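> example.struct
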């Protein structure tokens, strides 16, 4: 318990007394005033050149009147402010040591983080951005090994089956594996020759039947005009008539 009591020369809340029990001395601590729980326990260490006392009077005089004028009797407030003031000179005496230990460690990782962004000058405070770019850079080399498969993996795979489909129909145009492509192309090829044959057939059929009667018609009239021409020929008729007349004459004559 005694190791928890601080020194307070002016207004301690406790007092240390020597009590002899069974002939043996004991240091016993007694409260000399009421104070709340968890308050600083203080007593007068006695007259001595305690190092903190050399600093305490000057420090206590400044904060007590200005900040807590109504707490004149509250020694607790003075001691609470005292350590705060003591913490400031400690960092100044040892700027990189205990007092600034927390700050120094916080700055250290920040300094470590800055060199990383310095490689990426615009990512100074954006450690997250730097890490995001790093995987992007890693992703780029991977595509660089396969430059055509990088971002167009889908396109490449789409092209691959297309390329496979093209040679397959060419190699096995009528096989089962290329049923889709082969049959699509095959009917196209069949359809092309069919129309190419049909136009000739259909047109020839029509033309042949048309020509045939024409030819027949031509032949018929070609024969008839000759007959009709003979009959219609007035000269021939005259010859015939003359011959009949001659025959009649001959019959009549003898
Ligand atoms: C018995 S211990 C008191 C408890 C100690 N302050 C602690 O936190 O454990 C005695 C030591 O406390 C410190 N101390 C006691 N009274 C003080 C005061 N008024 N101002 C600054 N340090 C004090 C000194 O370092 C002293 O050696």
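> example.seq
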């Amino acid at each position: 318990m005694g190791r928890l009591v601080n020194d307070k020369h002016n207004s301690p809340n406790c007092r240390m007394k020597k009590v002899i029990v069974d002939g043996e001395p004991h240091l016993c601590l007694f409260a000399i005033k009421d104070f709340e729980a968890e308050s600083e326990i203080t007593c007068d260490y006695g007259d001595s050149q305690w190092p903190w006392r050399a600093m305490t009077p000057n420090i206590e005089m400044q904060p007590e009147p200005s900040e807590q004028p109504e707490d004149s009797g509250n020694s607790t407030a003075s001691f609470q402010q005292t350590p705060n003031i003591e913490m400031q000179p400690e960092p100044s005496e040892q700027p990189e040591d205990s007092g600034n230990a927390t700050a120094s460690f916080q700055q250290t990782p920040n300094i470590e983080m800055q060199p990383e962004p310095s490689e990426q000058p615009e990512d100074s405070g954006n450690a997250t951005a730097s890490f995001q770019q790093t995987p992007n850079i890693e992703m780029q080399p991977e595509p660089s090994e396969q430059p055509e498969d990088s971002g167009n993996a889908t396109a490449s795979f789409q092209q691959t089956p297309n390329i496979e489909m093209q040679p397959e129909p060419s190699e096995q145009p009528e096989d089962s594996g290329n049923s889709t492509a082969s049959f699509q192309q095959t009917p196209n090829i069949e359809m092309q020759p069919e129309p190419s044959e049909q136009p000739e057939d259909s047109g020839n059929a029509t033309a042949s039947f048309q020509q045939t009667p024409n030819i027949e018609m031509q032949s018929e009239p070609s024969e008839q005009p000759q007959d009709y021409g003979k009959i219609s020929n007035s000269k021939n008729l005259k010859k015939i008539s003359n011959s009949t007349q001659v025959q009649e004459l001959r019959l009549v004559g003898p």
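> remarks
The longest strand covers residues 14-21.
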